[in-house]
């Protein structure tokens, strides 16, 4: 007879070990999945986790790690603040889209004018767009008590339709021969979010992600607001007695995650993606949820988790072209990771007890 | 713009079809939530059901077997959620999200070789002369069996929850799992069964989209219906008949915006396509004032210390 016994305090050791154990378990079960798909599991795993870092073409893939990791980290940091406090913004994908649209719209409004002030204005507009989109569920939650999970998720679909409408209408490239999509911002110098060191993958989004990590770390460990976030998540009643204002906390956490998701969208559209297109968003907003949990909602953890998840994206692409591994397999792989993480997390809060329960 | 192009009889018959996936997914989730569990993985279970049903129907040539496979697929996926939340006591919101993300990936993987295929048709029930009654005939008596099954399921769930001992136990577990446990009811087992029922229903709902409503397989084709179903349960205040009403309302809106797109209304297509989601939000806002109907243990983790 196996029972679970609640630990008096969450185990620190397991808290650190579960993400690693989850990665190992995912590799094992992912390997089984690859066998089921008729691929050699070891080669597949090696292609996904080794090739991008140390393989023959690593010089090309390593910068990609920053390019793909930055939006994930940026969004996940924002989400983690809310998740810690039990505020569930799961519409980051929509906020990411709106940030990109606002930012790109700001830049394109100036076209073909050149000026140093254009890019900073775009950054502000991008952050504002994401913030605004997140404020809708936040406002509805504090004013009417509406469930923020459902509203923020619904707004993803609204944002996707809005994106389609924009790339076919207002933001469409007038010189694009009728193809959908905006002008390419990479060819508009004042608006281009170029690599700071050519070929390094290090664009302004990477810098912003670094700043966000440090900012979140300081906020959570040193600032009163960070304390309010943690205490609300761990003991909501205690939070009330200690004078935490739940309304302000919701507005802050949702707003912050929207802002960061919007920035991620702006940096992506003005840099690696280059233009607003119908399918410009690739699901970073949803993958960032996995990143946030995998990083245990801790800023440093999220940084590492973001890089790992970026690695699976890049490795997945390589495996797709080299081994013919379907793109969806990597999505399953990422989903599995979250499953194992959640399941193994049991050991952080509970202890397994063998033998019969004694009669009290 | 030519609104006369919209045939009211076909429109009503169409929205009954549009509402059916919602009815299945939402009534399943209603039972799950009545047992005190919040499963946000409806979208993932629906899309998994959609591909399981589609693949089975194509391979066997039998749409009915497809629906059975969809129910099994949805229930199997929901077992993962049950394991996470009931055995390893993981957070229900996070586990539900994981289920949706995993389901979307899994369905895309399973469905690779089924893109662009036409599934076998499930014929309408032959009501004989009833179908020839003007107006009422084409609206009510020209549908497939699954659509009627959906309505019957709502009635069944209502009756079970209201009149039977099993329904009473389910509600007791949802209202206070500690009290139910103290009375000797197996909370984990009851909840696991409820979760599986929800998964099977969501699977059938998904298959209704891929086999009858569209009918075709494309990645991510449920496009948020699972999430609307979750909103619908709140809309219905956890009451089966109000849920049916809500599903027809949303089905009507979906069908109306499709018809308006077809009729060439001056509103751009994208803004029409947004409308079901926007209206869901508005409805949620209007109804969120009253939370008293929610099961008291909803979303809380149950751990029997002894």
UniProtKB/TrEMBL annotation, chain A:
<dbReference type="GO" id="GO:0005886">
    <property type="term" value="C:plasma membrane"/>
</dbReference>
<feature type="transmembrane region" description="Helical">
    <location>
        <begin position="249"/>
        <end position="267"/>
    </location>
</feature>
<keyword id="KW-1133">Transmembrane helix</keyword>
<feature type="transmembrane region" description="Helical">
    <location>
        <begin position="95"/>
        <end position="111"/>
    </location>
</feature>
<keyword id="KW-1003">Cell membrane</keyword>
<keyword id="KW-0472">Membrane</keyword>
<feature type="transmembrane region" description="Helical">
    <location>
        <begin position="12"/>
        <end position="37"/>
    </location>
</feature>
<feature type="transmembrane region" description="Helical">
    <location>
        <begin position="65"/>
        <end position="83"/>
    </location>
</feature>
<feature type="transmembrane region" description="Helical">
    <location>
        <begin position="202"/>
        <end position="220"/>
    </location>
</feature>
<dbReference type="GO" id="GO:0022857">
    <property type="term" value="F:transmembrane transporter activity"/>
</dbReference>
<protein>
    <submittedName>
        <fullName>Nucleoside ABC transporter membrane protein</fullName>
    </submittedName>
</protein>
<dbReference type="InterPro" id="IPR001851">
    <property type="entry name" value="ABC_transp_permease"/>
</dbReference>
<feature type="transmembrane region" description="Helical">
    <location>
        <begin position="117"/>
        <end position="140"/>
    </location>
</feature>
<keyword id="KW-0812">Transmembrane</keyword>
<feature type="transmembrane region" description="Helical">
    <location>
        <begin position="149"/>
        <end position="171"/>
    </location>
</feature>
<feature type="transmembrane region" description="Helical">
    <location>
        <begin position="325"/>
        <end position="344"/>
    </location>
</feature>
<dbReference type="Pfam" id="PF02653">
    <property type="entry name" value="BPD_transp_2"/>
</dbReference>
Automatic annotation (TrEMBL), chain B:
<feature type="transmembrane region" description="Helical">
    <location>
        <begin position="220"/>
        <end position="238"/>
    </location>
</feature>
<feature type="transmembrane region" description="Helical">
    <location>
        <begin position="193"/>
        <end position="214"/>
    </location>
</feature>
<feature type="transmembrane region" description="Helical">
    <location>
        <begin position="135"/>
        <end position="161"/>
    </location>
</feature>
<feature type="transmembrane region" description="Helical">
    <location>
        <begin position="37"/>
        <end position="58"/>
    </location>
</feature>
<dbReference type="InterPro" id="IPR001851">
    <property type="entry name" value="ABC_transp_permease"/>
</dbReference>
<keyword id="KW-0812">Transmembrane</keyword>
<keyword id="KW-1003">Cell membrane</keyword>
<keyword id="KW-1133">Transmembrane helix</keyword>
<dbReference type="GO" id="GO:0022857">
    <property type="term" value="F:transmembrane transporter activity"/>
</dbReference>
<feature type="transmembrane region" description="Helical">
    <location>
        <begin position="96"/>
        <end position="115"/>
    </location>
</feature>
<feature type="transmembrane region" description="Helical">
    <location>
        <begin position="6"/>
        <end position="25"/>
    </location>
</feature>
<dbReference type="Pfam" id="PF02653">
    <property type="entry name" value="BPD_transp_2"/>
</dbReference>
<protein>
    <submittedName>
        <fullName>Nucleoside ABC transporter membrane protein</fullName>
    </submittedName>
</protein>
<dbReference type="GO" id="GO:0005886">
    <property type="term" value="C:plasma membrane"/>
</dbReference>
<feature type="transmembrane region" description="Helical">
    <location>
        <begin position="271"/>
        <end position="289"/>
    </location>
</feature>
<feature type="transmembrane region" description="Helical">
    <location>
        <begin position="64"/>
        <end position="84"/>
    </location>
</feature>
<keyword id="KW-0472">Membrane</keyword>
